[in-house]
Design brief:
With 276 residues, the chain is α/β, with parallel strands linked by helices. Helices cover 33% and strands 21% of the residues. It contains eight helices and 15 strands. The chain has a five-stranded parallel β-sheet, sandwiched between helices. It has a four-stranded antiparallel β-sheet with strand order 8-9-10-13, with helices on one face. It has a two-stranded antiparallel ribbon with strand order 1-2. Helix 4 links the parallel strand 6 and strand 7 (140-143). The longest helix has 15 residues, at 241-255. The radius of gyration is 20 Å and the shape is elongated.
């Protein structure tokens, strides 16, 4: 069984979704109202069978540089959650889904001791429905109709409450990932002691690659695993995209007279070498 992922199409700023109107927020990177900062970018599993609503949510999240996998029913979602290729940091799940309901999906997650934060979406807004959703394992509950600003605010709230999603700089040896500025700081050492660090700006994909490898130091990770983790699965990236990105990253670091700490292990993958 393979996951089916929908494609992205252009949508208007405001779209009528069934009996409701849902606002498509244009996220301003300079706004503090609902725009997410760089360190909050996550891989999201979106489970929503209403095409217009799912497309609207994905459009907003992708505009914020999230990696988003959108599936249409609970069975597809469970298959993706069980996949060895992909690690999600949050799930947005509709209650009334085909195959496996959102409620059952939450129960299966918790039964398998999976702590993935879940934001449940539903038109069922009675108190007893909210209680049932939270008791099934959902971390938060958003009643339809809603505006996208509230959806993003609830994702921020999940981030604040989930230790694994807390912002922090990641430092290994001389290398520090700056989540706030999407950059890499490198501290040089000499016989006179530690020298001031230099800051190397990174593209979104360069930052994601470094973050993923630095979160798994000295572990060999295959190119296929990196590709499945860091690229939207419906993009179908070319097979050598990881090697191309690694080459560009090494070239950038070399332009700053910085040795790249990422090793290529022939036939196996890549490793962040903490000895460098």
């Amino acid at each position: 069984m393979s996951c089916y992922f929908t494609s992205i199409a252009g949508i208007q700023k405001t779209r009528s979704i069934g009996h409701r109107a849902t606002k498509i927020a244009k996220c301003n990177p300079e706004s503090n109202v609902y725009s997410l900062t760089n360190w909050e970018k996550m891989r999201v599993l979106l489970v929503e069978d209403e095409a217009d609503l799912g497309l609207a949510i994905k459009q907003v999240l992708v505009s914020e540089k999230y990696v988003v996998d959108w599936v249409l029913d609970g069975a597809q979602a469970w298959h993706c959650l069980e996949s060895q290729w992909t690690d999600y940091t949050v799930a947005i799940v509709d209650w009334l889904l085909p195959e496996i309901s959102g409620l059952e999906l939450c129960e299966k997650l918790r039964l398998h001791q999976n702590p993935l934060p879940v934001l449940m979406l539903t038109a069922l807004g009675q108190p007893e429905n909210r209680v049932a959703g939270l008791d099934a394992g959902a971390d938060d509950y958003l009643v339809k109709p809603f505006v996208m600003e509230e959806l993003l605010a609830r994702l921020r709230s999940l981030q604040r409450r989930s230790p694994q999603l807390q912002p922090q700089n990641l430092t290994i040896g001389a290398f520090t990932l700056d989540y706030a500025n999407n950059a890499l700081s490198v501290t040089a050492l000499s016989i006179t002691g530690t020298q001031p660090s230099q800051t190397i700006p990174l593209t979104v994909k360069e930052f994601q690659i470094l973050a993923y490898l630095m979160q798994n130091p000295d572990r060999i990770i295959s190119g296929s695993k990196i590709r499945h983790q860091l690229w939207d699965l419906d993009e179908e990236p070319i097979s050598n995209v990881v090697a191309t990105q690694m080459r560009l990253l090494r070239r950038k670091l070399a332009s700053y007279d910085c040795t790249c700490p990422i090793e290529t292990i022939p036939g196996q993958g890549y490793r962040f070498n903490t000895a460098l």
